[in-house]
Amino acid sequence: MRVRIYRYLHEVTAPSRRGLAWFDLIEIGLVALGFLLYFGVRGAVVDRDEAAFANAQWIIDFQDSIGLFIEPQVNEWTLQSDLLVGLFNFVYFWLDFPLIIAVGLFFFWQRRAMYTLFRDALLISGGMALVMYWSLPVAPPRFFPEYGFVDTLKEYSDLAYQAQSTAAFVNPYAAVPSLHVGWSVILAIVVFWATRNWLLRIAGVTVLILQSVAVVATANHYILDGVIGAAVCLVALWIAVWLQRSGYPGIRRWLGERVANAPPEAATT
């Protein structure tokens, strides 16, 4: 029985495999649980107002000291056009997690190796981000109306921040790192690797550019949040690449050896 399990796992973890197997139900369940835990833990740090506002003020002062506190001007520029408000609200909400799910499902069905890389990079970066959310709560720009910030999602659409999930999963102080930017980096890179179609490659880069502007235009992130988010996700992607090239092949070799070295009678029982 144990050898059958080894053989089955060896087959269903093949990078070139397509189609579906029973193992995929476990895979989908584990990924769903991973993201559920991410959003659950992310929403747990909601009572550290003083630290969150102090950290945000430090970011504002730091960016101002180096001439990069341009978030008020970007937000004001966006508010001058209904088209821009609608565009960036759409990008911030729909070209984040909904797009990631769609791309992930496509990779899962058609490009299993790319799906694994994509999945691992997202989950690893999410885990790294949770540590930062716990240790460094930061109030986003929309909490500072004195600088002229207006929350465009709340004021000009039905996509208010609190409407993106239930209250239990919302952490208003999860500004650093910005996974909106970071996950867009992962998306753009993995899509670029997965296809030679230049339209799809350009689309991935376009989403990254639009999302990088949208997080500031909607008053949800500072520029520094996006920089840190990109850095965190690049590290996570590097780890995911290592798993793809060395970690998982090592596991499959071990499974293959267990099957190959099994006694003849064990292999048939």
Write the layout of secondary structure elements.
Blueprint: H1 2-12, H2 22-42, H3 49-65, H4 71-79, H5 82-94, H6 97-110, H7 112-135, H8 152-156, H9 179-194, H10 198-217, H11 223-260, H12 264-267
How many domains comprise the coordinates? 1
Largest sheet: none
Portion in strands: under 5%
Give the termini distance in whole angstroms: 6 Å
Shape field: elongated
Low-confidence stretches: none
Tally the helices. 12
Radius of gyration: 22 Å
Number of strands: 0
Q: SS-based structural class?
A: mainly alpha
N-to-C SSE string, H for helix and E for strand: HHHHHHHHHHHH
Give your account of this protein's structure.
This protein has about 270 residues and is mainly α. It contains twelve helices and no strands. It has one domain.
Write a short abstract of this structure:
By secondary structure, the chain is mainly α. The chain has helices at residues 2-12, 22-42, 49-65, 71-79, 82-94, 97-110, 112-135, 152-156, 179-194, 198-217, 223-260, 264-267. The mean pLDDT is 85.
Name the features.
269 residues; mainly alpha; 12 helices; elongated
